[in-house]
Amino acid sequence: MKFILLLASIIYLSLSNFYCLAKEAKSDEGILKVGLIVPLSGRHQEIGKSVLNSIRLALSKINNDQIEIFPKDNYSNPEKTLFAARQLESEGVRIVIGPVFHQNLIYLGEVQNLTFLSLSNKTTTIPRNVITMGINANSQINAIVDFIKKENLNKTIVLVPKSNFEDELRNALVKSKYEFMNIYSYDVKPDKLTSQIKQITAYDERKKKLEKIIEFVEKGIEILEKEEELKNLKKKYTLGEVDFDSVIIANFGENLKSVTNSFSFSDVTAQDVKFITLNQWFDETLLKESSANQIYFPSINLANYSKFRETYFKNYNKYPPQISILSYDILGLIYYIDKVQGSDLKKNIFNKKSYVGEVGEFSFEDKIVTHKLDIYQVLDNQFLKIN
Known about the structure:
4-stranded parallel beta sheet, Rossmann fold, single chain, 5-stranded parallel beta sheet, alpha/beta
């Protein structure tokens, strides 16, 4: 009798355990598990937290309880990024948003079961299982080249700062297959920068030409029809045009302003050539910089970006870093592929020619995203979209 009771107990417990496991498996069925690796503590924690907040906004918009986010703090450290990735792998995650920074990608090739959609905008030295989602140099240069062609600009020079971003930019310039008039590497130190810009604009030669003309007029060798023309000449710093019609300044923020100011000091303004730069994320300090007035730059859709920022502010009482909008779009992309194209994101992400998100239209090729960017101009204290 005791044996029968013991056997019944064992069968009952076994069936109970089986039922619990079956129930757990069923509850996981259909759940879209998305990992998130960002810095949630340390120097870059504000960026990481803003990415997490943006994903929460995306979740709210999608409004589907079948998505589960697994956030991990990588402290913006490559080794801890690898540790976080292995944790996510053990938890059944197969797709991960992040990391944010390129230097944290280096060990992720060791976790082949995971696919990472990184927010980095760098396209070199990328592990096979990582797709970079940032607004990269290729996308920006492509948009600029299209603009140059549309404007019939045939003498474009490019200024590339000596920095760890130089190789990335030069690769993008080569990949565009466009023949630029010249590509210069320049030193960002103010004294060296001013000297280089003077050489590029032939400032000394144009200044001497002006001085010579004024001297000839005053000596009667050259005759001007009106006395006012001499007064106007004396107001100038140089005489004669530069030999280029447009210049691409591959820089941002204060460094960009230093370059545009150096051109002003060399007597070259937006009335003489078209100034073009890289994606400025609608930096409002440019609106107050006179030397940057009329400058052109490629960027994402301004209306969508402004709307996203206001929604974020309404929910979190502060404005987000620029890349937060990328994470918002990435979750939407993952959800779309999972529900429409199939759960194998690594395979299916390349099946569609293009996607449209808050950043605008984008497509994928060889683990790199290409964004179709608009061109904007800083003009009259606003950012004007160029059709």
